[in-house]
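Recall from the previous chapter that SMILES is a line notation for molecules. Here it describes zinc ion.
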Amino acid sequence: MPRATTPQTLAREITISGHGLHGARPSSVRLVPAVKPTGLVFKHLGSGVEIPVSSDFAGDIQLATTLVKDGVRLQTIEHLLSALVGLEVEHLLIEIEGEGTDIELPILDGSARPWMEAILEAGVRGLDGTRRFIKVLRPVEVERGGKHIRVSPYDGLRVRYTIDFAVTSLGRQSREMTITPEKYRAEVGAARTFCLEQEIEWMRSNGLALGGSLDNAVVYGAEGPLNESLRFHDEAVRHKILDLLGDIALLGAPLLGLIEAHAAGHALHVDLVKALLAERSAWTWAEATEAAIPHAKTPALFRPTLVAST
Ligand SMILES: [Zn+2]
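With both inputs in hand, we obtain:
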């Protein structure tokens, strides 16, 4: 799949249901194709409240990314958003159904794979108009207590992520990659969420991870993962990249830049989004031009040339 030059939506709608990771309550998500470029917008069916995917509506973020508006709270949106960012689907109405106004999206298998497979099966469709990117012009950095994250100019979307845990079975993992739909599909989307065995008791006593099990998370014990097998030898750092891609959906447009993250998490990812958007001279709008995608098969040529727009 080449990098899209037109705004993209789904070719047909998708419905996925399941239970949440933390509260374990059921919810249902319906992805409805957009007819014109609108960005990604959640709609809570019970109240009719619509929440655009934007850092303006980011709520309390600790273990999951949350959007809040007009009394509606949507939690653990990052894996769905990651699949959408990874596969370049940037315009969609996302209808949410569940009990009450505080809803957690289905955790499914703990990765973005079920979302990704459903999106690939439904197919992607181009809309009229030009795809617009947020193009980074100079570095922006956020640092907090030894954790840091930085975005700098890059002609594409590239991520370098490092995690470093004291637990030896997890330890230090680092990975760097340029994100394309093919790369996302093969190397990122299937990586499952993870936690340390020693955190579980604390999480459960705080009402968290009540829906968690070895079916939807990798659990690292002192000797190694408690799961029978891993999907990647460095599945944990790949999941951090998956989460980061979901969180940068809160920019409201695709990004052209290199993100370097060390020991970061949802809160720092979203802080970077806010810091970049607030630093207006650090980025510009850029458009992917049709003429810039040659009909050659060389993968490098699939990257469109970007022109600054006014
Ligand atoms: Zn995650």
